[in-house]
Please model this.
Amino acid sequence: MANPTQTIVAFIGLGVMGLPMAKRLLAGGFDVVATDLSADAMEAFVEADGRTAKNIVEVAPVTDFVITMLPNGQIVRDALLGDMGFAMSLRTDTLIIAMSSSAPLETRGLREDLKILGLDLIDAPVSGGARRAEDGSLAIMVGGAPAMIEKARPLLKAMGSTVTATGEIGSGHAAKALNNYVSAAGLQAACEDRS
Model:
């Protein structure tokens, strides 16, 4: 049974990164209700004392935060605003945090569409891989309104050791893309034959 004083977080996407991140939120004292297409992932989260919902709309009216950890921005948009989307069921003070990698312009467009419903969005992609997701030491790059970033900071600190505000909405995703490029360039250079 949930504690009525706990912050309620709807977490969408229990993949390789999402599941350990959701577990870190549980360890941080948040009441997390998660969903995923994988029954095994949902079962693993229940085994960690988390709650699950086949359709997150069941808890949308009482949710304080929504976190998406999905493969790309289009899937995030569909989850929130598509035919089966649940954004219209959220309270207007619910903050949505997009944590998977996405295109900055897509993120800005999504925020504009959510604003019509009275909702706000920040982008907070992560770096560090599954091991750092498990130990809560992810690096998190956050774009959005400063007040919204501060509102989300306790959740972000539960999942990451470094939380860096990068600027306006979409800038977190831009920083993540640049980070990926630099990492790939470094790997390419390390693999070159220097004989």
